[in-house]
């Protein structure tokens, strides 16, 4: 197929997946090089977000020098300023293996656990949090060599929330149900514990057909029991990683050390072991795929802006102070604590003129936002004037052909700042001073 363009040094040829945040393509650096999966954000990134993303990229490229972490071949910003991430990939994932082969031998799962826990420990040591440890993001190479991938799920600017599943730690269920991102090293360990328990053929107590939602916190508090026919030498360690209390789980480093200390020769041959894996433990929807069997030649995505709609430079999880708290947590690893985007106690921060300009609808002409005034309407509104390019001459006098300034108002909501244009005077909820600014009768 004909390449549709270059992303960094990689030639992009096929679209694999697209969601509101990014597009995922296949590509190569050269004809004889390994295949790549390339994630490209839809929106240009600049200012503080650019620095946060590039700092994350620096940490990632240093962290992926581990045999069980997918190699980050290149990452950065395209010529148009959009973030991208290019990773080496394979055609199979652990999800495929479990679907085809069913539960795996205890010794093999124990070896997988050591490899993946060590990879997570290495990843965490660089101040990074994965947030998507699931069978679909674990690549399987030659000789069943495992590599963890899917770093973009908690990457600044590229991140998107995953649906709640059996791999979601109990402390993050509320955020997942709300469509927000929350991640921590402890939740990575929990997810890995679920992967290993699933690979052994264990049926999680909250993943039964008669359980309507895996998000019920009371159901998720149930202890994970032993697996019939499987050595408790391994399942006891895996169950510890599945503790409903994050402080009671081992770290990724401790989990790797504990599993590696198991005497493989002492593991008895499996008898009456599970023969299949419940479908509820192999999620297939809502994730950015690593590979897709069919694909289509398409041009790189250029988002179309609808009149009156915001230009979303940041996703919900990176909008406002809550998003900054999350990205700071992902980069800094402060205390290896739990970070969520539902922090309602964070102090309100007035957006800059440049940040407001980035949130204008796509049909606005070139210009600047000026005369910003925060704390309107009890602190929930920001008023500003939009000055189209050429709106003032060198002496400050308005040119005859220049359009008049446009009054604009942003309202702070849980998902960010919502633009209210002058045509929205019909909103009954507008405070008096905001309505006056818009010229409402």
TrEMBL record:
SMART domains xrefs: S_TKc (SM00220)
Pfam family, one: Pkinase
Keyword Cell cycle appears in the UniProt entry: no
Keyword set, alphabetical order: ATP-binding, Kinase, Membrane, Nucleotide-binding, Serine/threonine-protein kinase, Transferase, Transmembrane, Transmembrane helix
E.C. code: 2.7.11.1
GO MF term (any one): kinase activity
Transmembrane segments: 317-340
Family matches, as InterPro entries: Kinase-like_dom_sf (IPR011009), Prot_kinase_dom (IPR000719)
Residue span(s) of domain Protein kinase: 10-262
PANTHER family: MITOGEN-ACTIVATED PROTEIN KINASE KINASE KINASE 20-RELATED, SERINE_THREONINE-PROTEIN KINASE NEKL-3
Official protein name in the record: non-specific serine/threonine protein kinase
Source organism: Salininema proteolyticum
Upper lineage: Bacteria, Bacillati, Actinomycetota, Actinomycetes, Glycomycetales
